[in-house]
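Hi team, as promised in this morning's meeting, here are the two structures we talked about. I've kept the exact order from the run log so nobody has to guess. The first one is mostly here for context; it's the second one we should focus on when we meet again. Sequence first, then the predicted C-alpha cells.
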Amino acid sequence: MARIVASRREAMFLVDMAMPPDFSPPGTPLVTYLSIDDLARMADRRKRTDKADEFVESAAREAHRQYRDHHEIGPLVGQLVDTADETVEAAVRKFSGRLTDPADSAVLRQAAHTVARRILADPISYLKSADRTPDAIDVIAAAFAVDERSAGR
C-alpha cells in the first residue's frame, strides 16, 4: 500500500477504520490520513443536530423492528414458499404424463416455480415492510391457507 500511495499524483483522504489503526500515516503531503480515533474526536467536537438524532433513531427503530419481527415473518415466509413448492411439484407430476418429451417436465417445473414465486413476491415484500398492518401476518396466512401457529407464532 505504501508503494501505491507514494505513486499518487493527486491529493486523497485515507481513512483507517481499523480498531486499533493498523498502519502508519503515509509520509506524503498529498495524503490526508485519518484514523478511527481522529474521526471520533472530530465527531465529539461537532454539535449534534436534531436531524442526525432523528436519522439515527429512525434507523435503530427499523433495525429493531426487523429483528423483532423476524421470528414471526421468517417461518410464515418459509411455509408460503414450501406450500408453493409442494403445489408446483404436484402439478408437474399431474401434467408430466401428458408431455411427449420427458425433458419438458423441467421446463414445466421452472415455469410453475416462476409463476409461484411471482405470486408470492408482493405478499412477502408487504410482510417485511414497516407499513404492514398489525393483522397482516394473520391475513396473509389465512389467504394462503397456511397455519401461522405452526409457522412459529
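And here is the second protein, the one for discussion:
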Amino acid sequence: MTHAKDKLLRMHYKLGHMSFAKIRLMSTMGCVDTKLANYEIPRCARCLYGKATCKPWRSKGIPNSILKSSKPGNTVFIDQLTVTTPGLIG
C-alpha cells in the first residue's frame, strides 16, 4: 500500500470508520488535509467484515401436518424423508 493510501486509511480509522466519500467532502471543504480528496480509496478490512451478512441455511419451516386424502391411495407415505431445501442431505 502506498503512503497516500496509508494516510487516507489512518484518517478513516481516526474518524471512526467514516465513509470515504464523506472524508473526501471534508477535505474539499478544508476540514481535513486537502490532499486526501485526490487519493485512491483503499479497502478497509474491518468495514468489509461488518458489511458481510450471513444467511441461515436451516430453518424450522412448516411443521408436518396430517394430509387428508379424497380417495384411498391418493396420499401415501412410507418412511420417506422429505427435504425442502435443495442440497441438504438428511
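Starting points for discussion:
The helical segments are 3-14, 20-29, 45-51.
The longest helix spans residues 3-14.
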